Amino acid sequence: MKKIEIRDHRPKQKKKSRVPGLIRAGLTFAAACGIGILIGRASNVILPAATLTADNSTVHVVQDGETLWQIARPIADEEGQDIREIIYQLTINNELDQDGDLKPGQKLIIRY
């Protein structure tokens, strides 16, 4: 019985280096971050300065046991508006839930 030996005489291929792919991925990531930063800075420039100075908002720090009704009452009296409208504006501007749960130390932006 004869034994047959099979040999592969093809030239061996070099393994592809991962370095060019990693460099390309790194450059793509850096370019995306740079574009994001430029867009972020440009979005601040879009608003005119008159809009920024005309914003008459104040920040109210919530005290222990304070409710939205207690915060909104003086504002409604001062502005001559319905207190429910002020509460609605407070919940929308500060992204509060429908319950209006407040925590001591929480900061509320009041715009009127």
The share of residues in extended strands comes to: 5-15%
For this structure, the quaternary state is single chain
Spatial extent as radius of gyration: 32 Å
Low-confidence runs of at least 5 consecutive residues: none
> What would CATH call the homologous superfamily of the largest domain?
LysM domain
Number of continuous helical runs: 4
What letter string, H or E per element, gives the SSE order?
HHEHHE
Percent range for helical residues?
A: 40-55%
Structural class: mainly alpha
- Enumerate the strands of the largest sheet in spatial order, edge to edge or round the barrel: 1-2
Task: Tell me the total number of β-strands.
Answer: 2
Which fold name is given in CATH as the topology of the largest domain? Membrane-bound Lytic Murein Transglycosylase D, Chain A
Name of the level-1 CATH class of the largest domain: Alpha Beta
Please name the CATH architecture of the largest domain.
Roll
Averaged pLDDT: 82
Largest sheet: 2 strands, antiparallel
C-alpha geometry: elongated
- How many domains is the backbone divided into? 2
Straight-line distance between termini: 101 Å
What attributes does this structure have?
two-stranded antiparallel ribbon, single chain, 112 residues, mainly alpha, 2 strands, Membrane-bound Lytic Murein Transglycosylase D, Chain A, 2 domains
Characterise this structure.
- This protein has 112 residues and is mainly alpha-helical.
- It has 2 domains: 17-53; 56-111, LysM domain (Membrane-bound Lytic Murein Transglycosylase D, Chain A).
- Helix content is 51%, strand content 9%.
- The chain contains 4 helices and 2 strands.
- A two-stranded antiparallel ribbon has the order 1-2.
- Helix 3 packs across helix 4.
- The longest helix has 28 residues, at 19-46.
- The chain is elongated and about 105 Å long.
- The protein starts with 18 loop residues before the first helix and ends with a strand.
- The model has no long low-confidence stretch (mean pLDDT 82).
